[in-house]
Request: fold
Amino acid sequence: MRPRTRSRPAVLTALLAVIGLALTGCAGAGTFGLPEGTRIVTIAIVSNPQMEDAIELSPRFEAENPGITVRFVSLSENEARAKITASVATGGDEFDAVMISNYETPQWARNGWLVDLDPLMDATPGYDRDDFTPTIRGALSGPDGHMYSVPFYGESAFLMYRKDLFEQAGLTMPAKPTWDQVAQFADRLTDREQGRGGICLRGKPGWGEVMAPVDAMINSYGGRWFDDRWNAQLTSPEVRKAVNFYVDLVRRDGQAGAAGSGFSECGNQFSQGNTAMWFDATVAAGLLEDPAQSNVAGKVGYAPAPTGVDGLSSGWLYSWALAIPRTTADKGPEQVDATWKFLSWMTSKPYQQMVGEELGWTSVPPGARQSTYRIPEYVAASKAYAPQTIAAINAADQDRPTRDPVPYTGLQFVGIPEFQDLGTRVSQQISAAIAGQQTADEALDQAQQYAETVGESYQQSGGDR
Reply:
């Protein structure tokens, strides 16, 4: 995989951006050394590869908009979630725009923490909000149906596998694999002498790390976090079966150091040829098919997210998106306008074209816009995985995550404010089980206690918080 570590100049830029936060508490501050009247837009962004591409290309925007300077605060996923949430929830004004997801957007819109983006989109010729993938557009909308964040990319989940290794072993990937079949394949393909695991699965603590695939697997086994009366269900037979399966699979056939592996670490393992399968986000495919970044480009097959019982899928729905906190509006309409100019540039149709032409078509952020899948160059470059990606995103229904009724939304998360803390604490227990420090059942016994506290608070408030 093409190294995404920062060069010394990039590190210096990031440090200056962080230092600049102390100088940019209000519009017009922190402009030392810049032309008079320059407006600084400070953006908290997740340090994933596609976002780093946006940082690399941002001088193009500044050249087209000489009165605006963009400063990025690039953070790891767990750190970004914590810092952005703390800032927006407490009314901090250090960020003019933030990268959030379909987990935060509806909740924060309901709380009045975000700027309604519908009027800004309506006033932007050619932006074409209707071009957004429908499931993603709906997931980033508030209770009023207006969009409060705009998608940079969208994803679901699927199974990536080495076609060459399957062929060598005489194995055939079914059109719709089950988790039991995946486990059998992993057993056959694990080769510790060659340093190869049969499958890579996340184990790193974090509600957005190990809990994403674990939650999806729980759904596929008919499990749920709470029943329709907010009774915690993490020790139900369905959840126990799913989590034991996950822990046993990754311990038996997974990658070395699994308890510390997240999306990025599994991406490195798979792209370097150290694992035969990988179940994770569809957005990974573009990285795997880039020969400059991946040793397995052209050797990867893509199958739908494996199913558990009764054909239930373990897919999910997620979007990294950009939003404007309400505190930016307090700085004045000029600051909102400058911020939106960059956000609309970074999430536009022309941006997709520019990424493809400048950085390669496999680097185009997927899933957000339907028109992306009509660009001939992108269609040709992504033919191995694009149909599966968009099909999975279109099929995802976060309002009906599992077999039985639940009082929450979300496929790989529970769409309530408490989940950031609850999911993180449960993830720590599961990660400890993957590390061999306790059994999966012991992890779930403790997780049940955490969930009961949250469920009881909803019961006491009549189910509405």
Notes: Residues 1-30 have pLDDT under 50 and may be disordered. Residues 440-460 form the longest helix (21 residues).
